[in-house]
Each structure stands twice: as structure tokens, then as C-alpha cells.
């Protein structure tokens, strides 16, 4: 029987076919999970609808994660259509371009707030809204996406690294808080992948090349490899794991010199 037969999930962060969220959604759907997707703004609606045409029982809803009203509306609709919920994928991040490109010392107050609101706080808001639906299902698995720049200073990653550090701490606190309800919260720290969001990072092409040269596997990771790790962290195969940040980076993070 497929691993996730009869299970339901919601995926935040599909922008196009290269999105990490889309790769994860395909892996979850392949194993039988029924999925809801959200998109931010009309601009992305057509993209998401086109991709999801292959998943006829999916649900597609608008959601800007900075809006509590939109978050509430999403989970009300998911509750009405799915009954309960088993999984939530958070694959959303944003920082203003100028705050990524400027010297870090010049990071603006507004940019700092925005980056943390969209890239870290949203995990709290979304998980809280999902809670009653997880409780209906008797368990929940939350997965977020992060990057090594949360742990070490990575040139060009700047403000996003600070927001990811906040996201990773948020994962641990949510996991500690919600573990007694049988809700697990984990993250994948992915090596660099060429997506829309990645193109906002100055010097991203150099970053890809550097990772491929230095990582023990001597290459960059594939979307499918991130998606399969996500499948593991969402399915009962990882039932004993919570609060973890798991690297899927070809081993790059273990190298000292
Ligand atoms: P992506 O395809 O551009 O996905 C980022 C998503 O975040 C987009 O769908 C974007 O929508 C959405 N988003 C931004 N602001 C939002 C808001 N206010 N409300 C709702 N959604 C919003 O890029 P990706 O690389 O797959 O990124 C997915 C996740 O993986 C991010 O957390 C990223 O930091 C993480 N990650 C990426 C890499 C990499 O190298 N690509 C490595 C490690 C971790 P818009 O396009 O409308 O802004």
C-alpha cells in the first residue's frame, strides 16, 4: 500500500515547477496523500492550477502568510473539504532584495521585520491554525525548509540567514510544545537549488559551483532528493524524530577545511 494512502496535507510555497514545494508535493502525492496548495497573489494562481491539473482531488487556495485572515480562511476550507489534516509543508521565504544585497550592517528595520514575519513567524501562525485539524487526525507532521546560512555566515545570504536561524529555533520550540499532542516538527536544510527565490541571492551561481566542488558527493543535490527526504520526515517512517534539522546537501556541512 502507498505510504500515505488516506492521508491529507497542505503545501505552502509552490511558485512554479522548479519550486522545492512542488517537488515535495509530487513525492507526497505519489505515495497517496491528498493535497491542498496555496499560492500568493493572482500572479501565481495560473501556475499552481496548471501544475495541479495532474492531481484532480487537490484543493487550491490563496494565502499570503502575512495575513491572519487568509490563514484562517485556508484552514477553514481545508477543514470543510478534508475533515482533518496529517501534514503541513512550509516552503516559504522572503527578504527584500536590497537587504540581501546591501552590507549586512545596513539591514533595515523594516526589512528585518518582513523577513522574519514571512520566513519564520509564518511557521508559528500556520501550525497554530492547523492544530485543530491535526488533533482531529490524531497526529501531525510539519516540515519547513532551511539553509546552512542559518548556522554559519554565508556571503550574500545575509538577512535570510538570520531569519533562517529564527526558523530553526522556532522548529525546536514548536516541536517541544506540540510533541505531547503527537505533532512532529522538523526541517530540511537543503543545499543550493536553482529556484526563483534562490535567484534573489547575490552570487548564487558561484554558490552552486562552490557547493558542488566542496561537498563530499562532489555535486549539488537534486530536487527529487530533497523531496524524498521530505517524504521520510512526513511519513510514519520518521515517527520517532522531531525538532530536527536534517541536511540534504551532499554532505557539504560536515566539511571543515
Ligand atoms: P520558490 O520556488 O521561489 O519558493 C518560495 C515561495 O515562497 C514562493 O512560492 C513565494 O511566492 C513564497 N512566498 C514568499 N512570500 C510569501 C508570502 N508572503 N506568503 C506566501 N508565500 C510567500 O523557491 P524555493 O527555493 O523553492 O524556496 C522554498 C523554501 O526552500 C524557502 O524556505 C527557501 O528559503 C528554502 N531553501 C531554498 C534553497 C535553494 O537553494 N533554493 C536552499 C535551502 C532552503 P512568491 O514567488 O509570490 O514570492
Helix/strand layout:
Layout: E1 8-12, H1 20-30, E2 34-39, H2 42-52, E3 59-62, H3 68-82, E4 87-90, H4 97-101, H5 109-137, E5 140-146, H6 158-178, E6 183-190, H7 204-214, H8 223-234, E7 245-248
Helix pairs in contact: 1-8, 3-5, 5-6
The structure holds NADP nicotinamide-adenine-dinucleotide phosphate (NAP).
Residues 13-15, 19-21, 40-41, 44, 63-66, 91-94, 118, 145-147, 190, 192-193, 195-198 line the site of NADP nicotinamide-adenine-dinucleotide phosphate.
Describe this structure in words.
Helices cover 45% and strands 15% of the residues. Strands 3-2-1-4-5-6-7 form a seven-stranded parallel beta sheet, with helices on both faces. Strand 2, helix 2 and strand 3 form a beta-alpha-beta unit. Helix 1 packs across helix 8. It starts with 7 loop residues before the first strand and ends in a 9-residue tail after the last strand. The model has no long low-confidence stretch (mean pLDDT 96). NADP nicotinamide-adenine-dinucleotide phosphate binds next to helix 1 and strand 5.
Distinctive features:
7 strands, binds NADP nicotinamide-adenine-dinucleotide phosphate, 45% helix, 257 residues, 8 helices, alpha/beta, globular, seven-stranded parallel beta sheet
> In whole angstroms, how far apart are the ends?
45 Å
**Low-confidence region ranges:** none
Chemical compounds bound to the protein: NADP nicotinamide-adenine-dinucleotide phosphate
Task: Give the proportion of residues in helices.
Answer: 40-55%
Q: What is the N-to-C order of secondary-structure elements (H for helix, E for strand)? A: EHEHEHEHHEHEHHE
Total DSSP helices: 8
Q: Total strand count, please?
A: 7
Quaternary organization: single chain
Q: Please compute the radius of gyration using only Cα atoms.
A: 17 Å
Mean pLDDT: 96
| Large-scale geometry | globular
Class inferred from helices and paired strands: alpha/beta
| Biggest β-sheet description | 7 strands, parallel
Strand content: 5-15%
What is the topology, as strand order, of the major beta sheet? 3-2-1-4-5-6-7
Amino acid at each position: 500500500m502507498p505510504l500515505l494512502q488516506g492521508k491529507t496535507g497542505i503545501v505552502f510555497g509552490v511558485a512554479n515547477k522548479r519550486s522545492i514545494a512542488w517537488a515535495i508535493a509530487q513525492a507526497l502525492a505519489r505515495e497517496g496523500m491528498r493535497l491542498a496548495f496555496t499560492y500568493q497573489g493572482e500572479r501565481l494562481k495560473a501556475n499552481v492550477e496548471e501544475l495541479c491539473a495532474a492531481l484532480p482531488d487537490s484543493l487550491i487556495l490563496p494565502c499570503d502568510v502575512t495575513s491572519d485572515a487568509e490563514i484562517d480562511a485556508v484552514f477553514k476550507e481545508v477543514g470543510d473539504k478534508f475533515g482533518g489534516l496529517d501534514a503541513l509543508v512550509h516552503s516559504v521565504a522572503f527578504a527584500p532584495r536590497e537587504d540581501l544585497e546591501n552590507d549586512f550592517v545596513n539591514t533595515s528595520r523594516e526589512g528585518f521585520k518582513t523577513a522574519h514575519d514571512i520566513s519564520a513567524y509564518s511557521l508559528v501562525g500556520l501550525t497554530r491554525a492547523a492544530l485543530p485539524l491535526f488533533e482531529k487526525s490524531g497526529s501531525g507532521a510539519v516540515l519547513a525548509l532551511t539553509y546552512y546560512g542559518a548556522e554559519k555566515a554565508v556571503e550574500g545570504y545575509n538577512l535570510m540567514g538570520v531569519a533562517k536561524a529564527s526558523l530553526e529555533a522556532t522548529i525546536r520550540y514548536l516541536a517541544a510544545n506540540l510533541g505531547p499532542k503527537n505533532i512532529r516538527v522538523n526541517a530540511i536544510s537543503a543545499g543550493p537549488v536553482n529556484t526563483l527565490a534562490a535567484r534573489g541571492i547575490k552570487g548564487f551561481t558561484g554558490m552552486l559551483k562552490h557547493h558542488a566542488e566542496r561537498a563530499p558527493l562532489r555535486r549539488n543535490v537534486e530536487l527529487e532528493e530533497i523531496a524524498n527526504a521530505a517524504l521520510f520526515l512526513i511519513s510514519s517512517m520518521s515517527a520517532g524524530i522531531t525538532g530536527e534539522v536534517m541536511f540534504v546537501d551532499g554532505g557539504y556541512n560536515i566539511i571543515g577545511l
